[in-house]
């Protein structure tokens, strides 16, 4: 995962597509449990090349800046390339100050890493500039076939002996500019609800692939899907949730009991009257038992996992319960085991629902 130029105040030296200078916290690595809910509702799409920071895209872009044999771009070449992207310094003095901030090793040229960090910093700053967002063309500020509501953002950072969780997070800019603390082995970011602007910000911050983001925004993948990209991998699964967990647990118990009834015994369903059976069968219509399936998207990195749900669910509470146990396996392992735990929670929620429909089938078999 690339670092950002925290502490390097380069943004006041450049004009971002004719937008005025951008103010932000340059060292916002600390954030507290006092952060409130997300209230940003900007509706923007992702599939444009200007916010594709994948390795393939950035390497191609860097090559257009005409790097020399040493793999570095000259200062003038860097300036011309930035201006072609709509990023311009006001005068030579400002540009020199900008270069001093970007050229970390003072080598006299811009390396690929320095180029990447600068572009990432500027692109992320654009997404927190209200004037820039207002001036974006309509085709970049609206999504098709989807209403956008408030999204809730939460994060848990943990190691075997320490954990920190914040939910919901209100100060989105401060959090996205933050980095995982040194003591934490994993940062889990959970998003409840589809907010295209938030997804755009996360995609720039963590260099998520546009095709993976598109799968999340469209949310029409009916089967599990796994893809590997240069910076991360992605997994999409469909999840369902019980509308009344106590009810489905009750039916699950009855269904399990009916499986082990001896020939001369009476199952829980056979002991019911006709009226009770009819009432219970009506209660077990599919819409009364479970919610409509919703998509869960996972972006898997070395030490960061981002999960995006279409709507709020029990995932946060159930996974947090496991993470709060210091001796749990998930606390002792990395991102891969966290992904396994997320899928395990989804399966755990599905089991009582399937048993409930098994209970319905048993009722139908004994109903006169």
UniProtKB/TrEMBL annotation:
Residues 90-125 form the EF-hand domain. GO terms for cellular component: plasma membrane. It is found in: Cell membrane. It is a multi-pass membrane protein. InterPro entries: CorA_cytoplasmic_dom, EF-hand-dom_pair, EF_hand_dom. GO terms for molecular function: calcium ion binding; cobalt ion binding; cobalt ion transmembrane transporter activity; magnesium ion binding; magnesium ion transmembrane transporter activity. This is EF-hand domain-containing protein. It comes from Phytophthora infestans (strain T30-4) (Potato late blight agent).
């Amino acid at each position: 995962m690339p670092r950002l130029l925290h502490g390097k105040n380069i943004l006041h030296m450049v004009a971002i597509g004719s937008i005025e200078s951008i103010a932000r916290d340059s060292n916002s690595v600390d954030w507290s449990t006092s952060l409130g809910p997300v209230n940003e509702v900007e509706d923007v799409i992702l599939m444009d090349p200007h916010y594709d920071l994948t390795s393939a895209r950035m390497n191609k872009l860097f090559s257009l800046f005409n790097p020399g044999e040493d793999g570095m771009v000259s200062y003038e070449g860097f300036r011309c390339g930035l201006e072609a992207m709509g990023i311009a310094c006001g005068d030579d003095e400002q540009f020199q100050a900008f270069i001093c901030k970007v050229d970390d090793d003072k080598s006299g040229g811009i390396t690929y890493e320095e180029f990447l960090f600068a572009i990432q910093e500027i692109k992320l700053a654009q997404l927190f500039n209200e004037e820039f967002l207002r001036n974006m063309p309509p085709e970049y500020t609206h999504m098709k076939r989807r209403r956008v509501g408030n999204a809730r953002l939460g994060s848990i950072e943990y190691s075997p002996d320490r954990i920190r969780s914040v939910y919901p997070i209100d100060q989105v800019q401060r959090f996205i500019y933050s980095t995982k603390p040194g003591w934490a082995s994993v940062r889990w970011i959970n998003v409840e609800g589809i907010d295209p602007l938030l997804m755009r910000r996360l995609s720039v911050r963590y260099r998520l692939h546009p095709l993976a983001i598109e799968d999340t925004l469209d949310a029409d993948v009916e089967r599990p899907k796994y893809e590997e990209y240069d910076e991360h991998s992605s997994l999409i699964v469909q999840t369902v949730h019980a509308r009344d967990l106590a009810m489905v647990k009750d039916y699950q118990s009855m269904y399990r009991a009916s499986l082990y009834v001896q020939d001369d015994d009476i199952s829980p369903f056979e002991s019911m009257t006709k009226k009770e059976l009819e009432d219970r069968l009506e209660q077990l219509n599919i819409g009364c038992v479970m919610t409509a399936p919703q998509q869960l998207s996972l972006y898997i990195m070395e030490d960061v996992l981002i999960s995006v749900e279409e709507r709020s669910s029990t995932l946060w509470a159930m996974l947090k319960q496991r993470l709060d146990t210091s001796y749990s396996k998930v606390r002792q392992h990395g991102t891969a085991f966290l992904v396994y735990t997320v899928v395990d929670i989804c399966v755990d929620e599905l089991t009582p629902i399937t048993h409930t429909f098994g209970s319905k089938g048993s009722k139908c078999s004994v109903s006169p």
